[in-house]
């Protein structure tokens, strides 16, 4: 009869917690800097995905609205790539929205913002 192995709660069968691996990885300053660099792109990706879902359109349909390719939309939605202002303008128009760009300055607890609609 095979012996049953006991695994602590939330532990993978190979013995390491995924959450622990992520915490350990994020301690690495190079990787941490990369997470920080990608954060705005990932936030934009979430906005695009949510808006596209609200409109009930596919990546391909959004691409057609923007006169681009589905792979370009996929890159934006991956949250791993920078997007220029012109692309943001086209993206906003295709999503029946307005792109807003601005600057934030002053103390982080009470920042001052200057915004412009693209």
Give a brief description.
The protein is mainly alpha-helical. It has helices at 18-27, 29-55, 59-66, 70-78, 85-94; strands spanning 100-105, 112-117.
CATH architecture group name: Orthogonal Bundle
Tally of strands: 2
Spans with pLDDT under 50 lasting ≥5 residues?
none
Oligomer: single chain
Helix content: 40-55%
Number of domains: 1
Distance between the termini: 69 Å
CATH secondary-structure class:
Mainly Alpha
Q: Report the major sheet.
A: 2 strands, antiparallel
Tell me the CATH topology.
434 Repressor (Amino-terminal Domain)
Decide which structural class fits the backbone: mainly alpha
What count of helical segments does DSSP give? 5
Give the overall average pLDDT.
84
For the biggest β-sheet, the strand order reads: 1-2
Tell me the name of the CATH homologous superfamily.
lambda repressor-like DNA-binding domains
Which descriptor suits the 3D outline? globular
Indicate the proportion of strand residues.
Answer: 5-15%
Radius of gyration: 20 Å
The H-and-E topology, N to C, reads as HHHHHEE
């Amino acid at each position: 009869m095979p012996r049953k192995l006991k695994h602590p709660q939330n532990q993978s069968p190979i013995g390491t917690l995924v959450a622990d691996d992520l915490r350990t990885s994020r301690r690495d300053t190079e990787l941490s800097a990369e997470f920080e660099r990608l954060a705005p792109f990932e936030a934009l990706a979430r906005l695009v995905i949510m808006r596209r879902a609200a409109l009930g359109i596919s990546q391909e349909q959004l691409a057609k609205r923007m006169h681009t390719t589905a792979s370009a939309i996929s890159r934006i939605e991956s949250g791993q790539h920078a997007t220029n202002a012109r692309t943001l303008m086209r993206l906003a128009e295709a999503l029946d929205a307005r792109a807003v760009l601005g600057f934030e300055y002053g103390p982080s607890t009470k920042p001052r913002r200057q915004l412009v609609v693209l």
